């Protein structure tokens, strides 16, 4: 949530009032998009179009009055924002599925964030110094000279005046940061892969059902594929984060699991009564009958359970885990093309349980995951990499937010959310992961119960001293940047 601050003032009370309204729209867009309240999202888009028309007209009139040199270029920026708002309105009105609405919602929050950060806080700020200043109320009435012969101001008065000047400067200084600090105005950027629209037009129910299963699973996989290309990580991504893994996994599911689903005679019967002509791979799960849904899920679970390793007793009394041929085939199929592509442990029962948890016909997990991500993202920015226009979060808020998400998802996934944060957020370093892990058990063995993949990752990281070195260097750079910023704000430029 973004709050209005005086430093956001463009120097005109009317335009500031408009910008406060823009922040309201931004906050209600973020809330309604994450809560999937589509009626509110539609209302925000409609309000935004009216807002753009009124605010831009008002601002352009002010700029014309002060004979602003860049008026034409600024008008062009306004025209482009108005067009974006209009096109978004048209696209949203034409959105027939929740997935299409979700895409519009994501575009809406992106457009609004850019609008505030790039347009208001950068472009609009350029005309601020040119606007006529408000007349301070304490100014002497014209025609009356200030009384002469007053004693010179005392030291305390001079100090108070200096403090007031300093405070006034601090309020505005954030938006005139020197170029090397200017990026502190930008939100952290990373790649969030998007799925293509849901598919239709399948030649058979089998093919359609398989595609619908894959779409549900892929929504979760794609969530974990987010990454930050500006972070050069030494270790390969965990398997769930890799698009190459997703491809191999899809093949394995097609060969080992889908046939088990179709073995059931009941599913064949139920399928004939399901009218799927008008459905797509998303709406399939909204309209599939309960018995059919349960049949699909039962086949899916059966397929994975059949692959589990079983404990057998040898003649000498010792017990070993026996690996079936199909499980060996699964292990083969899920191996990366090169070790750098992704990291996967030897597939055992834990991994099989993870794969099984990826399909849940009753829940579109991607919605909940994205909501949890939003919270992690905001807490990260507020606590670890504060944007100048945001409220600061208390220490430990990010860690606690992450721990809170643990109960919301299948227990097999919590690890992946932690590792996704590490792959995206620059200051979620391996040393953060080490201290985070300590919250989850007194010994490494206890921790491994909760977050086996994080512990696996940390074991690899401990063998690479260059990782710690790089992270220390980056942390020192970050601290220096923060010091420079605080010095700048305190008007004590560092030497
Ligand atoms: Fe503006
Ligand atoms: Fe503007």
In short:
The chain has helices at residues 13-34, 38-65, 71-93, 98-123, 155-173, 205-224, 243-263, 265-272, 283-287, 290-307, 325-333, 349-357, 365-383, 397-405, 414-424, 430-437, 444-450, 452-462, 465-489; strands at 310-313, 319-322. The chain has 495 residues and is mostly helical.
Q: Which value, in Å, is the CA radius of gyration?
A: 29 Å
| SSE order, one letter for each helix or strand | HHHHHHHHHHEEHHHHHHHHH
| Number of spatially distinct domains | 3
Strand order in the largest sheet: 1-2
How is this structure best described in words?
This protein has helices spanning 13-34, 38-65, 71-93, 98-123, 155-173, 205-224, 243-263, 265-272, 283-287, 290-307, 325-333, 349-357, 365-383, 397-405, 414-424, 430-437, 444-450, 452-462, 465-489, and strands spanning 310-313, 319-322. The chain is mainly alpha-helical. Mean pLDDT is 86; it is low at 134-151 and 169-175. The two termini are 36 Å apart. It has three domains: 6-130, Four Helix Bundle (Hemerythrin (Met), subunit A) (Up-down Bundle); 205-226 and 235-362, no CATH class; 363-463, no CATH class. α2 packs antiparallel against α3 (71-93), α10 (290-307) packs antiparallel against α12 (349-357) and α13 packs antiparallel against α14. β1 (310-313) and β2 form a beta hairpin. Strands 1-2 form a two-stranded antiparallel ribbon. The chain is built from 19 helices and two strands. The chain binds fe (ii) ion (2 copies). One fe (ii) ion binds at residues 59, 74, 78, 119, 123-124. One fe (ii) ion is lined by residues 15, 55, 59, 120, 124.
């Amino acid at each position: 949530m973004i709050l209005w601050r005086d430093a956001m003032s463009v120097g005109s009370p009317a335009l500031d009032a408009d910008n406060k309204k823009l922040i309201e729209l931004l906050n209600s867009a973020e809330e309604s998009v994450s809560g999937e309240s589509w009626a509110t999202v539609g209302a925000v888009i409609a309000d935004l179009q009216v807002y753009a028309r009124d605010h831009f007209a008002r601002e352009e009139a002010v700029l014309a009055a002060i004979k602003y040199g860049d008026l034409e270029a600024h008008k062009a920026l306004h025209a482009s924002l108005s067009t974006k708002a209009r096109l978004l309105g048209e696209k949203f009105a034409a959105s027939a599925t929740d997935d299409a609405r979700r895409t519009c919602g994501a575009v809406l929050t992106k457009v609004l964030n850019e609008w505030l950060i790039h347009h208001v806080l950068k472009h609009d700020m350029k005309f601020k110094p040119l606007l006529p200043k408000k007349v301070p109320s304490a100014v002497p009435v014209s025609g009356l000279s200030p009384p002469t012969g007053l004693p010179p101001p005392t030291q305390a008065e001079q100090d108070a005046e200096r403090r007031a000047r300093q405070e006034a400067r601090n309020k505005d200084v954030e938006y005139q940061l020197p170029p090397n600090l200017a990026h502190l105005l930008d939100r952290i950027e990373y790649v969030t892969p998007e799925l293509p629209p849901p598919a239709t037009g399948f030649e058979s129910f089998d093919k359609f059902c398989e595609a619908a299963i894959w779409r549900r699973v892929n929504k979760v996989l794609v969530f974990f594929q987010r990454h930050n290309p500006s972070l050069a990580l030494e270790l390969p991504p965990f398997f769930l984060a890799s698009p190459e893994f997703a491809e191999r996994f899809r093949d394995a599911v097609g060969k080992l699991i889908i046939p088990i689903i179709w073995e059931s005679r009941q599913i064949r019967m139920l399928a004939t009564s399901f009218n799927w002509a008008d459905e797509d791979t998303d709406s399939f799960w909204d309209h599939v009958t309960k018995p059919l849904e349960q049949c699909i899920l039962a086949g899916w679970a059966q397929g994975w359970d059949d692959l589990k390793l079983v404990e057998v007793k040898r003649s000498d009394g010792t017990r070993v885990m026996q690996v079936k041929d199909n499980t060996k085939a699964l292990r083969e199929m899920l191996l990366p093309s090169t070790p750098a592509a992704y990291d996967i442990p030897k597939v055992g029962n834990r991994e099989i349980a993870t794969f099984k948890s990826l399909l849940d016909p009753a829940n579109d997990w991607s919605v909940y995951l994205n909501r949890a991500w939003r919270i992690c993202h905001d807490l990260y920015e507020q606590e670890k990499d504060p944007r100048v226009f945001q409220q600061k979060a208390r220490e430990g808020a990010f860690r606690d937010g992450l721990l809170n998400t643990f109960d919301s998802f299948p227990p097999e996934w919590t690890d992946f959310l932690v590792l996704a944060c590490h792959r995206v957020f620059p200051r979620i370093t391996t040393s953060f992961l080490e201290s985070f892990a300590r919250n989850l058990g007194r010994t490494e063995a206890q921790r491994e119960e909760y977050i086996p993949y994080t512990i696996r990752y940390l074991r690899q990281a401990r063998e690479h001293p260059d990782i710690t070195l790089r992270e220390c260097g980056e942390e020192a750079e970050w601290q220096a940047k923060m010091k420079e910023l605080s010095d700048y704000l305190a008007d004590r430029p560092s030497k």
